[in-house]
Amino acid sequence: MKDLKEVVRLVTLEKKDILLSILFGFLAGLSAVGLFASSGYLISKAALLPPLYALTVLIAFLKLFGFARALGRYAERYFSHRATFSILSHLRVTFYKRLEPTAPRLFQKYRSGDLLARIVGDVESLQNFFLRVYYPPVVLVIIFLGTIVFTSIFSLPVAVVLLLGLVVTGLVIPAWYSVKQRKSSRFVRESRGQLSTEATEFIYGFRDLKIHQQLSEKQEMLQQASHLYLQQQEKDSREMLASHSWNTFVTLMVSWVVLGLGAFLVSSGDLNGLFLAMLVMISLTVFENAAPMAVLPAHLEDSRRASARLFSLVDEEKTENGTKEMDASHAPSIRMENVSWRFPEEPRQALTDVSFSIPAGSKTAIVGASGSGKSTIFQLLLKFHAADAGVVKVGGEDIRTLDEESLWAHTNVMLQENHFFFGTIRDNLSMANEGATEEQQQAALASTGLSFSLDKQVLEKGENLSGGEKQRLAAARVFLKGKRLWLLDEPTSSVDTLTERSIYDRLFRQAQDDTVILISHRLNGLEKMDQIIVMEDGEIQESGSYEDLMSRRGLFYEMKQIEQTILA
Amino acid sequence: MKHLSRFAFADRKGMTLLILTSLLIGASVIGQSYYFVAIVDRIFLGQQSLQDVLPLFAGLFLVLAGRTLFTWLNGKTGIRLASKAKEHYRHRLIEKMSRQSISTSVTGRSGQKVSVLMDSVDELDGYFSRYIPQMIQTLIIPVMILAVVFSAHLYSGLIMVITAPFIPMFMAIIGVMTKKKSEDQMEKLSAFSGQFLDTLQGLVTLKLFNRSHRQQEEIESSSLGFKTATMEVLKVAFVSSLMLEFISMLSIGLIALEIAIRLVVYESVSFFTAFFILILAPEFYLTLKEFGSAFHTGRGASGASKQLEETLNEEDHSLVWGDQRLTYEQPPALSLRAVQFQYEEGFALDPVSVDIPAGSHLAVVGKSGSGKTTLLNIFSGLLPPSSGDVDVNGRPLYSYKETDWFNGVSYISQHPYLFSGTIAENMAIGVPGASREETARAAEKAGLSQLLETLEDGLDTSIGEGGRGLSGGEKQRIALARAFLKKPSVILFDEPTTGLDVKTETVLQRSIQELSEAATMITVAHRLHTIQAADQILVLDEGRAVGTGTHEQLKAELPLYRQMVTMQKGGEGA
User: Fold this and answer.
1) Residue A394 shares a structural domain with residue A514
2) Do A199 and B114 touch (CB under 8 A)?
3) 3 state DSSP class of A393
4) Fewest CB within 10 angstroms: A50, A488, B59, B266, which?
5) Is A485 helix (H, G, I), strand (E, B) or coil?
6) Residue range(s) defining the domain that contains residue B227
7) Does the residue B393 lie in any domain?
8) B125 with B163, same domain?
């Protein structure tokens, strides 16, 4: 339960709606009991041929209970769902607050997109916590208490039987299945994961499987995984059904016992026969409220897992942050001294003993093959990771002492993947700089060759923009930010030569006195750079100016030779 | 949706069981009411003692146990049916996908395919496990109750018959009235619910632009917007169930009033009959109402059902291979005879004819999007041409045995797929029985030795799905190692378009040279030296073959080609 502590705290923020839903849930449940009790009483009374007016009163009661039940149910649903969505909102905000400070690190660590989908899914599944776990037992207990008190007026033994029934259907059976559920839902998850992996490999690796004639073998494995998953699912569903069925059986048995006990009491003269029908009707009705208890274990387990996963994710990522503000008045110098770093759980070093010095206001290019460690250098410079060994310095300060927020605020960053938000082009540009005028925004767009209207709609993740358009928009955005340190990771990899030139023109004009580090996927046009760092396998192979490197005839020269023989 | 119900009704045994259990549930509902009423009647009015009614108690116990048992059986049958349906559809999907040519996988819908196979199939569950059983119950149980009520007391039966249609009618009316409204809300809903994911995905960007704090307010406001929009939709649903509740309650009230009056005023019914009807009436309306919620669940499967149908009805580009044997004492001669290809939308490859003599090397050049990779896929036998023939040693490719052909082919793509498993397993995918020494030698030839030395487990290092943790060049070298193990007679090679990986570059050059000595080779070429070394060059431009010949010939005759090969010489072209 400790996993759910935080969630419970968030749930209880919605006190008013919770109280209202409990109140109306209680009202609806008790009215239902009242409705059936009074109809049982009515019919028994009628059998004794009373005067008609006596029946009229009873019938009025019947109607009253009926309306109260329907309206109570409506209000209960309304308030409980309203509370649920408010809780969802709290969950999102709270979780966002906790996630936000560690986001870049966390996202780098789990380099797969499904982490986010999982987070959203987990948060979403927690919204069921109130509706399916927290509040049904509360309402159930209150309704039963009311009913039991009422019943005890007529017969204490019958009241005791109802109480026992509550314990079995509300506690014993759900608890028993809760344990089983935990195990079987784990199997379901595992077999689903297995199937998902097989399916992904089958579909993405189709060509290679086909050529190597492994398709039918893989297909067989996929069918098997599918079969296993279905078996687990079926088993899980059957358990749910069994839990449900046992619950029903016990409630029916309680009514049977109530009838038997009532019959005994009537024949022994301890109970007026007039109430027998009423008591039976009560016991048949009141257990309707125990039905949600059958699905409670599954939801409890879901919530517990979701919550544990969410909060462990956030908690593990607490690293120390510095406090020093970055000096924004002039361009900073950058240094790395014997820096090494390796992705957690990966066998190889991503960076080994990397040292370089970039003077303030100079222009540096980093080149190398994919996987050579270029982008990792940026990740360390942005404090997404802390170096395993060595020192990273920005503006002469050890990066560990710098406040990361301040570092980000004063750096123009363009990563390989740039995110755009649902909204207009203007919205997406103003996030870089609130104070920029329309003219400035237009000019920034123009320098990247984009002729978008500022009011153009951008869809989620910018999915209505092509790869090249996204890159140009990201460039425009970074131009507007206008800080003194530039970190650009392959900023022109998906644009044509003409646009590339236009973007670089603006960059070198605007960043004349700034420090620029550019990761480049091409070697053309690097002649102007003050320094070129050549990476291979996480190490710096050589560095120097374009002329230096070309005359040295090392790795850079070779790369250049290959590039020159490649057709555009 | 139709194919779902067809599937359900085709399962004779399941259907019979559902009908049978529904009949038994109906019977036990009636029996339960009968015994309860009979016992109360005898104790209360008959003044009998507990001993007198003991047989009735035994009957009641049996009926109650029966009701539970039959409901359980009914549910179990539903679950079984759902399992069968999911198995059936997933099986068919997998069959379908394995028959596909690669044209579907090159159209970039792989992610969607995975989701159809996983999620859409799972979403069918409710339709079979809840909707179908409930539908059958609704068709059977109310009718049974009605028959019993009619035989017990005509007027109550009439009230039921008259009021019952109001329930589906109201459901339909409310459904129609609110459809538009809820569709409007749905759009808002998906926008709101997408926003949280959108924000999370962009969190790094937000942080870098120092905007993440402000976003918190937006999450809050969009979550509250979500709440308002959802409540609009839900309110409609709640009101409709309120109305249904009122209808059933009024109807029950009407019945109660009617029998009470007859009981008291006219004394025309007995207590037994009156109580019996009073207990049966709620069961009658309850079944009708439950159908409403099951119907909702059934509707939920309609999106998934549509998606499944679409996928399953996609045109089959299945390839039929012959049984002509093909041996590789020598590398085969290949040729294209007026081969054409048309993707479902957009790109088309105009007729291409070319002869590749045994053991020779054809380089295909052209700008990106000119159809080079399509041509390579056609050569591989993975993509059947829309018209025309691929000939191998003078016979149509598809007249050969499929296994014979693929036994001799290696395809080294720009993005080879690596499966989760060890490096050795990934290499041996083409030659399952390869010995340890052969594997090690192939790895060495593919330039993997240095990489393997840095790995603690060497060849036995596990790599994740899709080759996680390896660079592009390393993946390519593993693909190359596959080829060295396989010793192909036909090599299809999609040359990398980037050239910064010097190590892979040199390995590729040397290895391809070595491999090609005993093979017929077709290269999608991006490098001048590859092109120059080819025996024959095919130039493609926007899906048309604009020239074939040697480097010198083409340079002399084809301005487009001359432009392509001189552009990069200057180096500044790119």
Assistant:
1) yes
2) yes
3) strand
4) B266
5) strand
6) 154-268
7) yes
8) no
